[in-house]
Backbone:
């Protein structure tokens, strides 16, 4: 699944620089994750770095964007062609 940032976000700026894919940006009110770029850090790290960095735990999996590990890896490979 791609990740999403919940409305609890306090705009602390901790998640955005941690995303290796550049999938996180400030939206109108809170930070948002571009699901087309979010691989949950597959291909870079063993765990999502934004989740690890978030001080209030407001990042979770987006149930509207269900992806398995193979799909996340395929997305990573499309973002970083070899």
Residues:
């Amino acid at each position: 699944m791609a990740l999403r940032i919940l409305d609890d976000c306090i705009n602390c700026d901790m998640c955005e620089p941690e995303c290796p894919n550049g999938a996180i940006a400030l939206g109108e009110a809170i930070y948002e994750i571009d699901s087309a770029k979010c691989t949950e850090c597959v291909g870079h790290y063993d765990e999502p770095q934004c989740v690890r960095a978030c001080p209030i735990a407001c990042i979770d999996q987006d149930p509207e964007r269900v992806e398995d590990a193979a799909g996340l890896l395929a997305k990573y490979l499309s973002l970083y062609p070899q």
Q: What stands out?
A: The CA atoms of residues 4 and 18 lie 15 Å apart.
